Input
Amino acid sequence: MSLFKTLKNGAAAAASSYKLILLIWVTTLVLTLAVGYPLRSFLNMIFGNSMAVERLNDGFDLGITGDLGKSFGGLIASVSAGTMLIGLVGFFIMTFFAGGLFRRFSLAWGGLKVSDFLRTSAGNFIPFLKIALLLMLIIGAYTFILTGIPIIAGLIVSGSPGQTGNIIYGLFVIWALGLPVWLFVADASRRWIAATGSRKVFRALGAGFRALRMRFWHSYLTVLAVVLINAVFILALMWLAGTSTPEKGITVFLFFVATQALFIIRLFMKAWRYASVCEAVK
Amino acid sequence: MRGILLVFLCLLPITAGGQIVIDKPLSQRLTGYDIDVTLDPVKHTLNGMMNAWWVNHSSKPVGEAMMHMYLNAFSSSQSTFASGGRWSAAGDDGWGWVKISSMKDGMGNDLSGSYGYVSPDDGNVNDKTVLRVVLPEPVAPGDTLVLKIDFVSKLPSPIQRTGYNEDFHFVAQWFPKFGVYETAGMRQREADGWNCHQFHPNSEFYSNHSVYNVSVTLPTEFVTGSGGKLMEETDLGGGLKKVIWRAEDIVDFAWTAWPGYKVVTRKWNNVDITLLTCKMGLSKAENHLDAVVYALEYLAARVGPYPWPHLTFVDPPLSGSGAGGMEYTTLFTTMGGGAVPVFLKMPEMVTVHEFGHAYFMGIMASNEFEEPWLDEGVNSYWEQRIMDHYYGGGYGLVQLPFLKMSDTDQGRLTYISSPSRAIASNDLPSWMYPHGTYSMMSYNKAATWLHTLQGIIGDETMDNVFREYYNRWAFRHPSGRDFISVVNDVVKSEHGDRFGENMNWFFEQVLYGKGECDYRVSGITNYKIRSYSGVVDGDSVTYTRGDRRSDTLYISRISIERLGDIMLPVDILIRFDNGKEVLETWDGKASYRDFEYTGSSKVIWAKLDPLDRIDMDVNRINNSWTLEPDRTAARRMLNKFVLLMQMMISVFTL
Ligand SMILES: [Zn+2]
Output
């Protein structure tokens, strides 16, 4: 199968799973709003009837943090705690849903009912969690070896961070080019579990590596292409969200709708990677 | 012989007009130094001799001289500077000191045995940073004392403003230097005497404007720079060279030598600007030069001319970062070269700040020991104005699409967020600030109330205050009281009695007092009343409707409170629902004040200090009150938070 066809089939499979993706989206929205709403109320409480909230328009004016006094410390602590909580719960949720998505993409035909989706998600959860943790460990070590060690060594040798700048950029590019290898292994191993129904994590990883070796360039380029497109999309989305400051009530609502729509697209694009890997391994 | 000739050359400018750097003397030139040393880059010592002279400008004979021996602050862990573990040497070679091997007066009398160390500030017998020399004969009024001193200076490591790190040398506070002989009346002093403080951890400085002829012999590979004008650089052969600098009318002379310096130059009007930077700092060189030109331009226009034709500054390498952020008038050091991202203007801020000291204690040579606010506070105030004027459209420190900060707010933030902001007055000597409040008070609180003063008297008057301060006090030694007199005179001449007889009430609170300023709008109420009129007939009252068209009337009340001790005049802007706005003023003295209006429209919001002129107000959140709080920002922030979190969990999971 050509690379293009793999990507095309993957995209089609992802698109046809829209119900599952919308379910994932709703879950993330509920989770983040559950933390975000109390934070918003806290912010409103701090400002009370003040008009100083104007200074948060057009970018966050750090000068206001002193006036906020202790409340600002409280706000930062709450946001940090909220972020940690969402990060942790989000990790479990995404690992959970990956179980269902891979089941869906490893089926030879047709869709998956939502109830089946949830059942397979639950069934695959433990092995998927193990694979996720193992690969995150591997990717962490890979990142440290490739960028962390040279930065520290560079600092010790040259005594200044600037002189090693170009080398660091070069290493970052190498790091980014190597990343699809690990992502492919993660996806292919999970596909193996979803397809075979086995719970054996190390055998799954073995199958993932074998799949990679069998058609290395095809596998690698499939993930690289999807990851690159995803990266560009994510950067554009973050830039857009970071720089836009809607000021009227209705534009704020439209901003919300737009960012959520873009996030749903992002979820599709992530599912596209899963589906493409499943296609490539097939 | 050569020494005597040099002394003669030095004295010449006072009597004849023999100028070398500047057309005519800027200062009284009561002191001068001819120094000839050799740098040993391996032992990090300076070996040499010096002819120092001091003119007795008082009306009485003076029988002793006081000198700073500041490198001795680094000579032991018991010195006032180093005690309490605030500095310790990097190994046995790290200690710094200055030793006098011979001292003679102008007549050739040997003075060994007639000098010893004193500790006027804290009586610490282990502190050897102030030397008292008892003269064989008092110096008569108008006479010149000449001291011929052979000395060795050893630089300390790690560098704290002065010192070395391998082949990087920053040489400051390095030679025996006269204190300031003050006459009665000068800086409100009661009797004549020397003002010569020890070297403290937050050490600041105080010196006469002097003439320096400095000659340094060192290996040829060293690139050098100093606060003087380079007169000569001669190759002596054998891998050595001699560098000769001359500086006029500056309060301190420092220099630096390092083989790794890269030199970048620029000319602004008649000023030759030299930047000594490192390889890593080269990428920021133009930014630093822009910053210094902005500062020159701004201060020359609003305070007074920069009178020297030369200016050198240093962006030290990481190995010399301990020398960064310090001022020696025509030489200063900045910091944070290439590694700082461009949107953060911290390096430019340091450049602007350290350059600004050329004015605030370089030209207006206040006593930094005793009144640190008068240079650090005033200089921070100008630094903030310059940064916010030239960078980021008012947000001179950080300007990103989603994050911003003005330099003025950065200073104010440091002050208002300090829990110790009200424990001491702003008028303490540098080493007397309790609980680590020195920099918060002398830099940030002072700058904050200077902005507040500007807010009260107006921008133009504030600039005129500093123009007059320059006119009266350039190349002299002003005190805080002298500065206040200038404020009083200028405000009086421009505003008459508008702010009272003088501005002392302001300084008594913000400078000499400890109080803080906080005004707030505590609430708005609108009572709806009917425009009925009552007719009393016996025991019963009947009401008749007055004018049907203006049926509803409101009694609106805006309640204002003073929560702090400081009383300042404040403006209150009040807006009604028909779009009308009223600007009220209040002297701010009572503990509360209500403004009441009766009319057909109700008040929808009120803003205290609507133009944000009272920077001293420690809480601006409570300066306004609206009946319809705008929740848009909070909603938008929630949206962004939700998206950011969603992206986080989708990106950081496999
Ligand atoms: Zn300063």
DSSP finds nine helices and one strand in chain A. Chain A has one domain: 3-280. The mean pLDDT of chain A is 88. Residues 114-158 of chain A form the longest helix (45 residues).
